[in-house]
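Limitations

Structures in this collection are predictions, not experimental determinations, and the ligand pose is part of the prediction. Treat each record accordingly. The example that follows, with PMV as the small molecule, is included so readers can see exactly what is and is not provided: the inputs are given verbatim, and the output is the predicted complex.
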Amino acid sequence: MFSEDFIFKRVKLVSGFSSWESPSNIALIKYWGKFDEQLPKNPSISFTLSNCKTITKIKYRPKKENEEQDFSFLFNGTEMKSFHEKISQFIKRISQYISAVNYHFFDIESHNTFPHSSGIASSASAMSSLALCFMEIEKKIDSKISKAYFLKKASFLARLGSGSASRSIEGPIVYWGDSQAYKNSSSLYGVALKEISPIFNTYRDTILIIDGNEKKVSSSKGHQLMNSNPYAENRFNQANKNMKILQEILKKGDLKGFIEIVELEALSLHAMMMTSSPSFILLHPNTLFVINEVYEYRKNTSVPICFTLDAGANIHLLYPNQYFKKVQLFISERLLKYCHLKQFINDSIGFGSKKIQL
Ligand code: PMV
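Predicted complex:
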């Protein structure tokens, strides 16, 4: 499909409510570097999460004559300027794809199930829940929209808010970005993976909060710095190769291969930050202590646990559910001391967004 296929076809004035919840996701193969309108320089693939999610509700009505504002926005009941700007930019970007945006006013309210100050990126869940609400409104205008088109276009719109958000609409594993590994892959939207060994449906993600502060360098700035990173082309090639390797691993349930590729991807992402100009480090000393503890624990036990990282200091521990109790013990005995305010979140692989009946 092309971007043009997502341009709206009908215009109609409507009013009502729409509400969706959408989860965050954690990338196994990382997206880092973009071009044009939020298109990725390399393909990526992620586990959709379950507990870490954003719930968004939109009340919509036709705009009044001369009404200048397009929307109001409350996050956890309060107005937040930085979020307001992001939503304003998102609404502008989707205006050629969602007819309602051009003729309606939206009262938007969102909240997260995870603490806002935990340093967990919420753009994937926030933007995907918002995109789904807008798709719901579009469906009211054009009732012929099929379920498959609805999901595809929701992912397409979510991407325009935040690239990784395109992978949060469905679950349990979603790929995004043209890739030779998957014939139906697209840089415009995410696609749910079909061939998955059942072991991965049982995966847990325990997120260790190492640093509760906001990131020093935003993802947008980080993506932009890839344009001049001398290792960028090699990184994009590496991600493409890793997609193919991981495809087989996910099909066969090869946990040893999974650990190797997932940890390599996490460290490659941060290597790109360290080799950008200006260079930057988002890791915290405690991130490295935890990584060493994970290496040590894996050597001494038969637990197939691995770590991955987002664009930040927090650690995601990935492991099959059958090791849950053992890993909880490992965390409380060895890792809690490295966590900010001893915080961690137990999440697991999830099955995507849900409509909330009002
Ligand atoms: O979606 P963005 O623009 O916030 O970029 C996210 C990039 C990473 O989280 C670091 C990697 C990924 O693929 O999710």
